[in-house]
Write a structure and sequence with these properties.
single chain; mainly alpha; 2 domains; 22 helices; about 0% strand; globular
């Protein structure tokens, strides 16, 4: 997902406080049975995630169990040494990170479900189809929109919006939906890489002052290459022809309140960005303020609904209340499997970092390799392990690198997750939203093409900015 949105300054500060207070009591368990067992548990859980479509086991279940088991093992090890306080601090540190992600995503999903119910995406589908666009044109339109919306919003929210459009447009065309979702994931991740608030990794680098605001835009052309090259290859797998026209029984697609809710969603994104950029408030708080916008507008629709019911005591059978709208019903329709999966990932990976494994990986990379090679591998690693703890480990180690190398690691950590569907928040979210159409193996088929774009973007960056 990389799917943005966390309290980075507080996390960095809390990490420093934890380190200073518990450095003397922090245990290195990487060579103990606890550490080895934790790695085995993490790997086993991810195997089940990969096999989700084969065994029909929701991906959240193994990751939730893995998170619990890893921290129980850590707690047992620390209790044996009579230092349980450090474990509580470590869990709270990771849980705060998840809580902010949870509320950010919950609001985004609520808005998307609201717009779906109000027919916003059905109307967009009609507009796209009415223009006579082919499947190939639609593939490029959704990809390009994802690329340019992601830097303003975030890759997760952008991918969810564009996937909803693809699902509406591509009814009955699973191949089109699958390939388009891959294009959306690659485009959203690439678009977020050249903006300081397009992805949490860019946000972390920006907050630490390693890359200034305008210096992120040096990555624009490499990001374009990262998306455009694999997209040029993938377009040949799209079905020929155009989507079938929509047959509307009542002639209405867009319900009352659809456009205002879409505008409120844009206002919510602006609020989240402004909260962070100008007030230094975590973006999740801006998203929660946006939920208040939706709830207030929902109250207005409820008042309209009551008036409509009084005026239409016995409406015809083909007429329903056009104002009927329940915010909490849209919250309940959120992709809870995805939200709980993120909990498992963040807590499990956070546990491995607490054990000391992320520090070892960072030390091995920058201690034994050159900065360029190490930063390229950081991107590859972020496709397997979430890019946030990987980037956080790099920032914690603070290797001495010039600006061009910090830009490089920002690029690779942002777009490296596109190599696998589980490598980014956007990919994980779309596996839930386009279930059955976009899967781990659907994405894996196109990993060579995405890797070609990954390599080309690095080459262009070094050519232009080194």
């Amino acid at each position: 997902m990389k799917i943005c949105r966390r309290l980075v300054p507080m996390l960095l500060l809390s990490n420093s406080v934890m380190a200073s207070e518990s450095a003397a009591t922090h245990l290195d368990l990487t060579r103990s049975w606890v550490g080895i067992a934790s790695v085995v548990i993490f790997v086993a859980a991810y195997v089940f995630v990969i096999l989700e479509e084969k065994i029909h086991l929701r991906k959240s279940k193994p990751m939730l169990l893995a998170a619990a088991l890893v921290w129980v093992l850590i707690a047992l090890a620390y209790m044996q040494q009579d230092i349980p306080g450090a474990v509580e601090a470590g869990i709270r540190h990771n849980f705060l990170e998840y809580a902010e992600l949870f509320f950010f995503l919950l609001v985004a999903m609520t808005y998307i479900n609201s717009m779906l119910e109000r027919g916003v995406f059905d109307e967009l589908r009609h507009l796209l189809v009415s223009r006579g666009l082919s499947y190939r044109s639609l593939f490029w339109v959704t990809g390009i929109l994802s690329f340019f919306i992601s830097p303003i919003a975030d890759n997760m929210t952008t991918a969810l919006i564009m996937c909803a459009v693809v699902m509406a447009v591509g009814v009955g065309q699973s191949r089109f939906i699958g390939v388009s979702c891959i294009g959306i994931v690659v485009a959203a991740n690439a678009g977020g890489a050249f903006s300081p608030f397009g992805d949490i990794t860019t946000l972390m680098v920006w907050q630490k002052g390693l890359v200034e605001f305008w210096q992120f835009f040096d990555l624009f052309v490499p990001s374009v290459v990262n998306y455009a090259l694999p997209a040029l290859i993938m377009q040949f797998a799209l079905p020929a022809g155009k989507p079938s026209p929509v047959v509307d029984v009542d002639g209405e697609r867009l319900k009352h309140g659809g456009i205002p809710i879409a505008l409120l969603f844009l206002l919510t994104i602006v609020t989240a960005v402004c909260f962070h950029n100008f007030l230094h408030i975590p973006p999740a708080y801006g998203m929660m303020a946006g939920l208040a916008y939706l709830k207030l507008y929902g109250y207005y629709l409820q008042r309209k609904s009551r008036a409509w019911v009084l005026d239409n005591a016995n409406p015809p059978h083909d007429r329903s209340d056009p104002y009927d709208f329940d915010v909490f019903d849209k919250v309940a329709q959120a992709e809870w499997d995805t939200l709980f999966f993120f909990y498992g990932v963040i807590l499990t990976v956070g546990g491995l970092g607490f054990l000391g494994y992320l520090g070892i990986v960072s030390g091995a990379l920058y201690g034994n390799m050159g900065a360029t090679e190490a930063n390229i591998l950081v991107g590859v690693l972020s496709a397997v392990v979430d890019n946030i703890p990987v980037m956080f480990a790099v920032l914690t180690m603070d290797p001495q690198m010039p600006l061009v190398q910090w830009q490089l690691v920002t690029l690779t950590a942002g777009v490296g997750g596109s190599l696998l569907s589980i490598g980014s928040a956007a990919g994980v979210a779309l596996m839930g939203q386009a279930r059955g159409h976009y899967t781990f193996f659907t994405h894996l088929k196109w990993t060579p093409a995405i890797a070609l774009g990954y390599a080309a973007s690095i080459w262009v960056h070094m050519l232009m900015n080194a």
